[in-house]
Amino acid sequence: xxSVTLVNGGLTDQISVYxxxxxxGDGVFETIxxxxxxxxxxxQHLKRLTRSLSQLKISPFDVEALLPLIQPxxxxxxxxxxxxxxxxxxxxxxxxxxxxxxxxxxxxxSDKVKTTVAWATKGIKAQICATxxxxxxxxxxxxxxxxxxxxxxxxxxxxxxxxxxxMLGYEGEVIEATMHNLFLVKNGELxxxxxxxxxxxxxxxxxxxxxxxxxxxxxxxxxxxxxQLMEADEIFLTNSINGIWPICELGNTRLEIGEVxxxxxxxxxxxxxxxx
Length: 276
Hints:
CATH class of the largest domain: Alpha Beta
Oligomer: single chain
CATH superfamily of the largest domain: D-amino Acid Aminotransferase, subunit A, domain 2
CATH topology of the largest domain: D-amino Acid Aminotransferase, Chain A, domain 2
Radius of gyration: 19 Å
Strand content: 25-35%
């Protein structure tokens, strides 16, 4: 078994053409790493899913009911990726949802393809994308289904040797990468962009911020300019599936995988390896 698809708890890959997730991107998603049958950062993912549904006023939906659906398909050895999508449900034409509507769930469970291990250890190449992120504070922070900006940005990488693209806000400030959150290190201090206007507040981003502070590393969550990024001592990207990817080359700028990045990487590896 390499992949499973569940729609509203049933083994199927069919959804209604009237589902608002398909028609309008009206929904949210979470992507969780499973290691030897253990879901990493499960509580944090479910809490964010609950917050996201509340922010979009999608209800009723029992988040806790997802776990019993997923558990039978978790492997006791190896790594899997579990993607959970929750849409507002079925409605016909029109942006306004029906007065009575039931949220729908779609769960994808697949084996993690181990093709990116070298990127975590040796670093990646990245470029700054021309596609920019629009500001919408009501959507900022959550993983909603509207990902066209990221799709356009990733298309810019076609034909290059870059593995990721850095996305800016409309005022030209650094926000995140297409699939990751971003951190930079300067003089031993950690900086990550403020996401109050746009961007996804990642689970790994929150963990890294809290753990760094516990280790006595100063952390600033603030506006980050491109010039500040290009003058950084270290830059790395984070998400729940890939952990930490150091950036070794950004445009024409080369960077070292530094002490702070290595310290945080070691902690992430410990979490993945200590799941039992």
